[in-house]
Amino acid sequence: MPADSAYGQDRLAKVLRRVRFRNEARVVRDVTPIVVPSPELLHINGHAELDDVCKAMNAEWTQCDTLCGPRPKPDFVTGLSAAAFTKEEKEKLQMSHTSACPNLFLENMYFPFLIYEVKGSDRLIEEAERQAMHSASIATRAVVELFRKISATAEVHKKILAFSVAHNHSIVMIFAHFATITDQRTSFFRRLLHLHRFAEDLESTAWTKSYQIIRAIYEHFVPQHLA
Question: Which PANTHER family does UniProt cross-reference here (predicted)?
């Protein structure tokens, strides 16, 4: 649960009223920290388990092929930092890196696993969903193709490999992403983990659930992702 006093229920209600008809940048500034805790800020605050995690904002994924449409440029993305790998591991990853099977997505980020898309009041939340789903599917494909190269796709078949968050000023959705693998065919799927509407949840602590889920991803999924 957000510990800062800025996240008290009364104050949150005032914030949500003020951003109701504002643009995406305002929603990102005022609402996103309530929904998605920053791994880098948590690390600064003493969470050493996030040593190997990094975050990027509005950075285009120039190193990968798309599944359809333009290259992803998520509002936020969290992945593994270069510090998570030894020099030898990074050299091996570099040798196997292709646009169809990328591992280094940004300058210092390997294997993104948490994608966030945000919309203001002038855009549909479904647009954020689609963008996040595309990016998460590409991130999932990267892991699948890495395991395919060592004939170990059974280890990632139907296994959750990425998460996405889509939100605006009133609704938050969190999805888990996985793939099914049959011979050379890979199909991508997502499962809704959580949906809440701020207006319905302000009378309880339910509005903190998305924050708690993301914290759990950092705590439990990241070590498995690194293994």
Answer: PTHR42470:SF2, VAST DOMAIN-CONTAINING PROTEIN
Coil, strand, or helix at residue 111?
strand
Task: Give the total number of structural domains in the chain.
Answer: 1
- Cβ partners under 8 Å of residue 103, min gap 6: 93, 96, 97, 110, 111, 142, 146
Residue 71's domain spans which residues?
A: 5-226
Residue-wise pLDDT tens digits, 189-214: 999 999 988 777 666 677 788 999 99
Are 96 and 146 within 8 A, CB to CB? Answer: yes
Helix (H/G/I), strand (E/B), else coil: 33: helix
pLDDT single digits (tens) 176-190: 999 999 988 999 999
* Contacting residues for 155 by C-beta, under 8 A, at least 6 apart: 147
Strands 76-81 and 104-106 come out as unpaired
- Strand runs labelled E in 34-184: 53-57, 76-81, 104-106, 109-118, 162-167, 171-182
Tokens linked to 32: 């996103």
Tell me the longest C-alpha to C-alpha distance in the chain.
54
